[in-house]
Structures are given as C-alpha cells and as structure tokens.
C-alpha cells in the first residue's frame, strides 16, 4: 500500500500519530489496519495541523450506530495546552445530531459562554446503521457544512482567529471510518 506524502493539513491524534491527507484523496492512509481502528476509536480527539483557514476542509466518514441516540463533532481551540480544561476551551463549532428530535444543532462557545443554538435544517440527513460523509468547509466568514454531498447549512464564525481552531473531538453513536 502506498503512503501519501504528509500535507500540512493533516489531523493528528493526541498521541501524535499521523493521519495523512491529500486533496485528491481525503481518506486515511495507513500501513497497518490495526492502527486505523485504534486511531479512529470514538470518543476521538485529534489535532488540526496549522489550525483552520479559508479554503481548508475537514471530512468525516463513518457509520451511524444501529440504535443511535446522538453524536457531537466539535472544532476547538487548543491554545491552552498545559491546562486543557474542557469548560474553558473555546469551541468554534459544535455540531450535535439528535436522533429522537431529528435535529442537527450548531453552537459555539467563546470565553466560556455558549452562543444561541442554531436549529433550522431542511431535512435530517442521518439514518441508523447507514454510512455518512460530513464535510466542514472553512470560508472567510463561515463554516459551510455538507452531508453526503448536499449543503445542509452555514455557521458564521464566532471564533475569529481561525488558526487557533486546532482540535477536533468526535463523540457519540457513530463509528469513524475515515478522517481527513
């Protein structure tokens, strides 16, 4: 199996294992399948090398659990490495899928305060026990979120320093198959 060259956009797990990312192939390329299952275990925490910037995108592929409750995907600021207190960390974007309510909520936390939750969606895109692909595109003014190739909504930046957004966290009723 060929290993792609490292891009500066790679996401790293907390123990600094490297996930390779290339523009043509957003998938994980690893020489050892055991590493893949260990690296992509939920709950997942990783680093976004270089932080976010306009033109950068994050792709999350996975499978929803057969009897899901919810899942969350958060893009966080990790500027306070020594004191990594979850309650004090700025959250640039928190996506929360709630299966009972069939909602895909968006929110942000800046200086310890959560913004008003954004709820409207045209449809709920997730199906239990089915694969999905979420793309988070970073633009100058907003994140643009796509699910399975369809634009679902925009979320305007509350955290203004895009390079400070350098962590991703994924928890809940899903399995991750690829991350880039």
Automatic annotation (TrEMBL):
Q: MF terms per GO, please?
A: carbohydrate binding
InterPro entries linked:
ConA-like_dom_sf (IPR013320), Galectin-like (IPR044156), Galectin_CRD (IPR001079)
Q: Superkingdom of this entry's organism?
A: Eukaryota
> Could you tell me which SMART domains the record lists for this protein?
Gal-bind_lectin, GLECT
Q: Which PROSITE patterns match?
A: GALECTIN
For this UniProt record, the keywords arranged alphabetically read as follows:
Lectin
Which residues are in the Galectin domain? 44-180
Q: What does this protein do?
A: Does not bind lactose, and may not bind carbohydrates.
Instruction: Please identify the protein, giving its name as recorded.
Output: Galectin
